[in-house]
Amino acid sequence: MEIIVTHKGADFDALASLIAGTILYPDAVAVLPGSINPNLKMFLSIHKDIFNFACIKDIKFHEVKTLIVVDTNSWNRLEPMPIKKNDIKIILWDHHTGGNIDADYKVYKEIGANITLMINQLKKQKKDITPIQASLFLMGLYEDTGNLSFPSTTAQDAYAAAYLLEKKADLLIISNFLRNAYGKKQKEILFFMIQNAKRQEIANFNISISIMEIQGQIQNLSMVVQMYREIVNVDAAFGIFIDNARNKCMVIGRSNIEELNIGLIMKSIGGGGHPGAGAALLNKTNPHVVEEMIIDRIKGNQQSSVLLSDIMSYPVLTINQDITIEKAGKILRENEYIGVPVVNENEKMVGIISTRDFKKVKKANQIKSPVKAFMTRNIISISKNKSIMDVSKLMIKYDIGRIPVIENEKIIGIVARSDIMLYFYDLLPD
Ligand SMILES: [Mn+2]
């Protein structure tokens, strides 16, 4: 006899993996653990008849020759079973790190959801899956990856999701049974964080760092941290969430001020993100060490280490205000520029001449006039000490793609949209 088992407190990934197991191993009996999550209970109360499950007490364990374990690799997460490990063959499908089940055959990968591993195999073996099965599998996948948003999500998970949609997974069913964005669990976590909130001042920033243990995958933790930051009203808030079952530590940060770049802080501890928001998924470490690391990074003020001068392009081609329009036009054409900063004899920036200004030239003899007669004088520029957020805001406000960087009234570089894009994307984890 072959049986398939999964962890106590089964979630959708566990249930999906059980069902996928029955397709991959048609002779095996799926055993439902004694405890299952409430939303899963609701799902099963309606769908029970479609799936065939046994209970632990129905199994004649002396007949069990093969044990297939899915979505866990720890004995203590399984229901106690009267089996002798040496007498049976163990097959394992899992995506958690750590664990103590010594399997004879194992499919393991650190990946967003366990069901992804099994979908890959179903696909490979060209096994048919029904729309109801596809819906259940997608629920498992979405729950464990937070709708493909957790940092643990891989491309494989997204491919698997696409495959399930092809197999007619029903998104309406899924939204009915998956937890609400702000449900009971999120509310409990938020309340815990608020009750235990401590504020501290680090390098002139108001910071709150909250450490707590969580049970299983929780969706929308980042939303909870965001709400927490708003409620306790600090410049930046961090949640350090310890997931003992998965041996992971999830760090989520939110910042409300541009001087404190969460993406950089998270990148320096192995994660990534954007200036206002970021996360890191760490193998389980002492949360107080993580807290220390965050405080260290804030003290080091990561933001000041990246200045406009680090991302700007230089040297900058400029032209003197006294050269003729004719000559300026030639320089623009040769360099394929649509605009060039104009300087006076002291190298001070006084304007910009662009192809648009040339339309003001109406008479033939005007091409001998100096550039200063036609250039645009109200120029948008930025001081080199300003932040990357500052320059982005200027670009958005004035809808311009290139902004000269100024030091002591002299132009020392130009920041283009592409420089900023590179900067932001470089913050993302590799
Ligand atoms: Mn899982």
Account of the 3D structure:
By secondary structure, the protein is of the alpha/beta class. The chain folds into three domains: 2-177, Alpha-Beta Complex (inorganic pyrophosphatase (n-terminal core)); 184-303, Diaminopimelate Epimerase, Chain A, domain 1, CATH 3.10.310.30; 310-422, CBS-domain. 36% of the residues lie in helices and 22% in strands. The chain has 16 helices and 18 strands. Helix 1 (12-24) packs parallel to helix 3 (114-124). The two termini are 45 Å apart. The mean pLDDT is 87. The site of manganese (II) ion (MN) has 6 residues, from loops.
Helices and strands in order:
Layout: E1 2-6, H1 12-24, E2 28-32, H2 38-47, E3 53-55, E4 66-70, E5 89-94, E6 105-108, H3 114-124, H4 131-145, H5 155-166, H6 171-177, H7 184-195, E7 199-202, E8 205-214, H8 221-232, E9 236-243, E10 248-255, H9 262-268, E11 272-273, E12 277-283, H10 287-299, H11 302-305, H12 308-311, E13 319-320, H13 325-335, E14 339-343, E15 349-354, H14 355-358, E16 382-383, H15 388-398, E17 402-407, E18 410-416, H16 417-426
Parallel strand pairs: 1-2, 1-4, 2-3, 4-5, 5-6, 8-9, 13-14, 16-17
Antiparallel strand pairs: 7-8, 9-10, 10-12, 11-12, 14-15, 17-18
This protein binds manganese (II) ion.
